[in-house]
Amino acid sequence: MSTLIKGGLVVNATGAFPADVLVAGEQIAALLAPGFPVQADETIDAGGKYVIPGGIDGHTHMEMPFGGTFSADTFATGTTAAAWGGTTTIVDFAVQAKGTSLLATLDKWHAKADGNCAVDYGFHMIVSDVDDTSLKEMESCVSAGVNTFKMFMAYPGVFYATDGEILRAMQKAREIGGTVMMHAENGIAIDQLVAQALAQGRTDPVEHGLTRPAELEGEATSRAITLAKVTGSPLYIVHLSAAQALDAVTRARDTGQNVFAETCPQYLYLSLEDLAKPDFEGSKYVASPPLRPREHQSELWRGLRTNDLSVVSTDHCPFCFKDQKELGRGDFSKIPNGIPGVEHRMDLLHQGVVKGEISLERWVEISSTTPARMFGLHPRKGVLAPGADADIVVYDPTAKQTISAATHHMNVDYSAYEGMEITGKVDTVLSRGRVVVDGSGFRGAVGHGRFLTRELNQYLV
Ligand SMILES: NC(=O)NCCC(=O)O
Ligand SMILES: [Zn+2]
Ligand SMILES: [Zn+2]
Q: Phi/psi at 449 (nearest 5 deg)?
């Protein structure tokens, strides 16, 4: 089966140029001068549109056990929604439950995901126990294609790791070619602020934001960077939300340390004002780190331009408003933490291009090319070039759409971006050469997505 994508503007992280893209089987066969005569079984007209590498969302949580419930998207529904939004690869988190083994965890996540994904997928591993067994098992995870290990300085009693545990895991990561991913918030101090708020009868969702000050994200980020420096381990800060944390990352990067960071669309577009919405509406916006006052947003956009923020992932972690966020009515600390977004990352970041915050090429870089390199998937993913997987999005930059829960495909009963008007829209999506979304709707299949074993982080020096 061959497909010719004709007449579009090909956009890679390195530049944009008019070209036709020839797909043969699952791979890109050639980028051709526009109109170059070639036979293909199917032709897609991309006139007036961008042709970009499929999005790679390096931070999702499908079917995640958390906050006394499970995130509402299954691998089937979540990856289908991803495809609708032009994301053709996700990297999800396998979660080690305390007292269980990392390899059993990996088996459990394969059982959930294998045969159930509409697009390709990989795993990171959440390490909840740092002991000799888990540390040894990290080696086997790397052999199984999982070389990124998330740890938490937040959530005492759940995922929290002490500095000593983090240090040991970082030493192991350094030894085996892994990268530690860090949820950097000072959970011990936050727990005190939460207890004080509840004791004073402050129970509304906005308190989630007020009890997790930006300084405590900045402090934890600095501490994680110091531990990484002492151990020589690479470090990837997940879901960075605060200017103070960005400052710490910038300083470390300026000294040449292997420190990387991602932010998420919610921190670029939503704010503490959303958390303060009345009638428990604010619960829709509870995630950790919390949404910040608006002034952080311009700093985050600046960080994306300067590459101190290298990646934008969603931290997609959907909980329904009606029966899941409800668990925290009367006690904000019991609201399941997470915001849905896997379907809208490409569109939301395109608004950055429309508004002049980032270039067209940078849009592709932070949403596809850098995640591919960071998570060991490049050059198979993240670039339009001969030999790469034909994960391709035809994107209409002038189409208008309005985000709404009434039209989205994520298995969640609200949208954090309800009513937001977007310029640009996914037109056609190919996953390994197969059209999975086009004007007629979803043409893919649950089960089409394959597990990706990942190589080394390509940014390590
Ligand atoms: N971020 C969030 O609130 N939920 C997902 C779990 C995590 O990434 O910490
Ligand atoms: Zn986290
Ligand atoms: Zn997360």
A: -65, 140
pTM above 0.90, yes or no: yes
Determine which residue's CA is closest to atom 3 belonging to ligand 1.
287
- Structural domain boundaries, residue 222: 54-374
Would residue 329 count as lying in a domain?
yes
**Residues that place a CB less than 5 A from ion ligand 2:** 183
Atom of ligand 1 nearest to the CA of 152: 9
Going from the Cα of 149 to the center of ligand 2, the distance in angstroms, rounded, reads 12
The CATH number of the domain where 206 resides is what?
A: 3.20.20.140
* Predicted local confidence at residue 391, as pLDDT: 99
Total domains in the chain come to 1
Place of tokens 């004709």: 6
Place of tokens 């959440």: 126
Position 434 scores a pLDDT of 98
Q: Is 442 exposed, middle or buried (0-12, 13-18, 19+ CB in 10 A)?
A: middle
Q: What angle do CA 145, 307, 338 make, to 5 degrees?
A: 60
Pocket of ligand 1, candidates 70, 148, 160, 317: which has the most ligand atoms within 8 Å of its Cβ, to mutate? 317
Q: Cα(72)–Cα(70) distance, rounded to whole angstroms?
A: 6
CA–centroid distance, residue 28 to ligand 3 (Å): 32
For a mutational test of ligand 1's pocket, the pick from 59, 60, 61, i.e. the residue with the most ligand atoms closer than 8 A to its C-beta, is: 61
Could you tell me if 160 and 126 are in contact, meaning their C-beta atoms sit under 8 angstroms apart? no
259-263 and 311-312 beta bridge pairing: parallel
Within 8 A by CB and 6+ apart from 440, the residues are none
Tell whether 112 is covered by a domain. Answer: yes
pLDDT along the chain (461 residues), means of 10: 98 98 98 98 98 99 96 98 99 97 98 98 98 98 98 97 98 98 98 98 98 98 98 98 99 98 99 98 98 98 98 98 98 98 99 98 99 98 98 98 98 98 98 98 98 96 86
Whole-complex ipTM: 0.99
**Listed residues: CB within 5 A of ion ligand 3:** 315
CB atoms within 10 A of CB 197: 18
Out of 217, 237, 239, give the residue to mutate to test ligand 1, the one with the largest number of ligand atoms within 8 Å of its CB. Answer: 239
For residue 7, being part of any structural domain is answered with no
Residue 22 lies in a domain: no
Q: Whose CA is nearest to atom 1 of ligand 1?
A: 288
Distance 315 CA to ligand 1 centre (A): 6
